[in-house]
Write a structure and sequence with these properties.
Strand order of the largest sheet: 3-1-2-4-5-6-7
Number of helices: 4
Radius of gyration: 15 Å
CATH architecture: Alpha-Beta Barrel
Largest sheet: 7 strands, mixed
Bound molecules: iron/sulfur cluster
Low-confidence stretches: none
Shape: globular
Mean pLDDT: 97
Distance between the termini: 40 Å
CATH class: Alpha Beta
């Protein structure tokens, strides 16, 4: 697994203040993607022990709510195993912190991925510029969904995602 950046005290990629890992590698090629530099799975830097420790130092802080995996696509074949192992370790070391993951894949295609046992919130789907709206909550375009993964997996029909939040902050739409 390779990565481009680790951002800290991030307020734009999930609830609370978060550490965000921006991985390298994405096959979705969404039009007007904001991070095309992250598409190349050979770009960025190797995710090494120093990067791992940098993330744990952030998660050690009481005020950090959790980690968000973004990119790039954390479920790209170059990242999928590394992300799963890191999620497993974070879940063990920090059981009270939340794990969010942004992917261009849709829930229906990834709901059986082994990483889902660790993910609290999944933001799914490709960015569609024609459905884009900067006021949307935690997502870039209307087709994407902010999914409560554990609620969904525990529900009667896990094929139908249970949403974590509405499309907009209360009262913000139009
Ligand atoms: S899935 Fe995300 S990173 Fe990949 S092309 Fe689409 S917007 Fe860009």
């Amino acid at each position: 697994m390779r990565y481009h950046n680790i951002t800290k005290d991030d307020m734009s990629n999930g609830d609370g203040l978060r550490v965000v890992l921006w991985v390298a590698g994405c096959n979705h090629c969404c039009r007007e993607c904001q991070n095309p530099v992250t598409w190349d799975p050979y770009g960025g830097l190797p995710f090494d022990e120093a990067a791992r420790q940098e993330i744990f130092e952030q998660l050690d802080k009481n005020y950090i709510s959790g980690i968000t995996f973004s990119g790039g696509d954390p479920l790209h074949p170059a990242n999928s195993l590394g992300v799963r192992k890191l999620c497993e370790e974070i879940r063990q070391r920090y059981p009270r912190k939340t794990i969010w993951l942004y992917t261009g894949d849709v829930w229906e295609d990834v709901r059986n991925h082994p990483v889902m046992r660790y993910v609290d919130v999944l933001v799914d789907g490709e960015f569609r510029v024609e459905e884009g709206d900067v006021k949307l909550l935690w997502k870039g375009s209307k087709n994407q969904r902010v999914i409560d993964v554990q609620e969904t997996l525990d529900s009667e029909n896990p094929a139908v995602p249970v949403l974590h939040c509405p499309d907009y902050f209360e009262g913000v739409a139009d």
